[in-house]
Design brief:
This protein has 359 residues and is an all-alpha fold. It has one domain. It is 84% helix and 0% strand. It has 17 helices and no strands. Helix 3 packs antiparallel against helix 12, helix 6 runs antiparallel to helix 7 and helix 10 packs across helix 17. The protein is globular, with a radius of gyration of 23 Å. It starts with a helix and ends with a helix.
């Protein structure tokens, strides 16, 4: 009687989840819409869909491989040690510390480590959410800082330097806020560490190489396919929205609700919406207006900050939504993305108001 029950359980586990059928249908519908969307041809599909998706999936595969190597060889303790003093302030465990340190090199790898730890019950849901927000603070900003400096300083000069300093303050503010929330919400990490040690003791019965191969097989065969299931249709839908000029419509509609008395209408209308379209274009427009005397240094800085705030939802839809839904799955990915972008907007608005009042 026991044997059939076990067989039934095995068969039940192998059945595809309903969500897989839903996302497969969405993928086929999205591909079908590509054939009727205006201006879609083979070069566009290769340039906007095939290449970005291939690059993203390769990065995610490497991130999963890195996660398997760190976990399988027992290196997570070494990586976590680098950020442990900071993590202790917010009651974060070593798994969050590992992800935090990794986020300085790759946001995808850091989020993958968090999701793996959460799925394997090494992290609580509450800590996983806060750790994901923590990675969006100083680590994420530092990762993109060289590119930002290379664009903004030559184009905008002193105003660009002030803008970089203020956005750095906003990133540090986000980190401090999350650490405080962790201190208030999370319990001491000692219990989680004891659970982690128990898990490690069980895993240490297997050789390191064997554990790495086991995790690689588990992550690359299961997790990567799951990530692709969500990422592919979302990427296609974002391209379709761009072809149907949804983002341009959103940009035009936003114009009617924006009124900033601290800035000239001529300046804000160009700078803000140039940033919505592309950060480099916004920086170039700001630099041109600063040189022409249309904007002062203070007005240029405020325009760049407000442009960054207004661009947040559009950039999230264009670039970040597929990655978050692919790594964290739809429901959790949307929650983390919304929380992260809200925190980002709040931090930038706070430093912008302080700068406006002080100078």
């Amino acid at each position: 009687m026991v044997q059939p029950s076990k067989q039934n359980n095995v068969k039940h586990k192998k059945r595809p989840k309903p969500a897989a059928y839903v996302w497969a249908a969405i993928t086929f519908l999205s591909i079908g819409f590509l054939f009727i969307a205006p201006g879609v041809d083979l070069p566009l599909i290769v340039h906007r869909i095939v290449w970005p998706l291939s690059r993203l999936l390769i990065i995610m595969a490497l991130s999963l491989g890195l996660s398997a190597l760190v976990e399988g060889m027992g290196w997570s303790e070494i990586v976590a040690r680098l950020s442990r003093p900071l993590m202790r302030i917010g009651n974060f465990s070593d798994w969050s510390g590992t992800a935090f340190t990794t986020a300085f090199l790759s946001g995808v790898a850091a989020n993958t480590i968090l999701w793996n730890a959460y799925k394997e019950k090494k992290l609580s849901r509450r800590e996983m959410l806060l750790a994901a927000l923590l990675n969006l603070g100083f680590p994420s900003y530092t990762l993109h800082l060289p590119i930002t400096i290379a664009i903004i300083i030559p184009l905008v000069g002193t105003a660009g330097l002030i803008y970089v300093s203020l956005t750095l303050m906003a990133a540090l503010l986000r980190t401090v806020i999350v650490l405080i929330l962790g201190r208030l919400i999370l319990s001491s990490p000692k219990k989680m560490e004891e659970q982690g040690k128990e898990y490690q003791n069980k895993e240490e019965l297997e050789p390191g190489k064997k554990r790495v191969k086991k995790l690689l097989s588990q992550y690359l065969s299961g997790r990567l396919g799951q990530i692709a299931m969500y990422t592919v249709p979302i990427y296609i839908m974002v391209v379709l929205l761009q072809q149907w000029e949804f983002f341009e419509w959103l940009q035009d509609k936003s114009a009617s609700i924006i009124a900033i008395e601290a800035l000239p209408v001529e300046g804000i209308s160009v700078v803000v919406f140039s940033i919505v379209a592309e950060f480099t274009a916004g920086a170039a427009a700001a630099g041109a207006m600063l040189s022409a005397g249309v904007l002062t240094v203070k007005e240029t800085v405020l325009a760049l900050l407000f442009g960054s705030v207004i661009a947040t939802p559009v950039r999230a839809l264009r670039h970040q939504l597929p990655r978050y839904l692919g790594i964290f799955q739809p429901k959790m990915g949307i929650i983390i993305l919304m929380m992260g972008q809200t925190l980002r907007v709040i931090s930038v608005v706070i430093v912008g108001i302080i700068y406006f009042l002080m100078y």
